[in-house]
Amino acid sequence: MNAPSAPTFSTPPSTIVVDHPMIQHKLTLMRRTRTPANEFRLLLREISMMMAYEVTRDMPMEMIEIETPLTTMQAPVVAGKKLCLVSVLRAGGGILEGMLEILPAARVGHVGLYRDPVSLAAVEYYLKLPRDISERTAIVLDPMLATGNSAAAAVAEVKAAGCQSIKFVSLISAPEGLATFHEAHPDVPVFTAAIDSHLNDHGYIVPGIGDAGDRIFGTK
Ligand SMILES: O=P(O)(O)OC[C@H]1O[C@H](OP(=O)(O)OP(=O)(O)O)[C@H](O)[C@@H]1O
Ligand SMILES: O=c1cc[nH]c(=O)[nH]1
Ligand SMILES: [Mg+2]
Q: Could you say which residues bind 5-phospho-alpha-D-ribose 1-diphosphate here (predicted)?
């Protein structure tokens, strides 16, 4: 008898799909064309708060002694490297808001990138990162990972600043973009709420959400 064939996984090993029911429900509401900008922003903020839990799940802990009203005890607190959230302008700002609710002490950096509409290459127009980013874990934020060019360029800037501990958070990713990103940065895990079907001829994620920046800021 033939040995049972090994299961095939379409999700690359360093991609973590955050499939919590509340995230998936809210993402469905975001995808709808009829969802207006104010609801879209609120949903993105709520999803980002939940993704903040997932992306920080492996933070190292240490025990400290504290006093409760009744006794002293050993209690856990977060230890280790501090965080830097890096927002990819413009649309990363939508995730940043929710992440800062959960991680208020994090430092914040910005990378300004736009996609050239013809070549789909990422073009940089702004960069401001905290000076001590090399001593921090960076969480790079952009709701859309389409061709992966913007994500790869943003992470390259964070690495160039000396940071060696990096994670990437997106809302929706395309399989093509994940492959490109993981090839460029095999050491950087991607946390995403969905891996969609494919990119269309204009580099948009299908079924996707449309243009995230335009939907967050109501610019179309
Ligand atoms: O994976 P890619 O093919 O690079 O596409 C993804 C990028 O496209 C969008 O930004 P856009 O360039 O539209 O800029 P915006 O956020 O200012 O709208 C999105 O927010 C990502 O940054
Ligand atoms: O589907 C896509 C692709 C790139 N940028 C977006 O905002 N949406
Ligand atoms: Mg955009």
A: 90, 115, 142-150, 211
- Secondary structure (3-state) at 40: helix
Asked if residues 106 and 85 have their Cβ atoms less than 8 Å apart, the reply is yes
Q: Which helix (H) or strand (E) holds 106?
A: none
ipTM of predicted complex: 0.97
Contacts of 176 (CB under 8 A, 6+ apart): 147, 148, 198, 199
Reported as a single tens digit per residue, the pLDDT across 47-57 is: 999 999 999 99
Q: Ligand 3: distance of its center to the CA of 214 in Å?
A: 6
Domains in the chain with CATH codes: 15-58+82-204 (3.40.50.2020)
Q: What totals of helices (H) and strands (E) does the chain contain, helices first? A: 6, 12
Which ligand lies nearest to the CA atom of residue 177 in the structure? Answer: 1
Per-residue pLDDT tens over the stretch 82-113: 999 999 999 999 999 999 999 999 999 999 99
Q: How many residues does the chain have?
A: 220
Contacts of 158 (CB under 8 A, 6+ apart): 86, 109, 111, 129, 133, 138, 140, 166
- Residue 192 to residue 170: CA distance in whole angstroms: 5
Instruction: Report the nearest-CA residue for atom 14 of ligand 1.
Output: 114
Is the CB of 217 within 6 Å of ligand 2? no
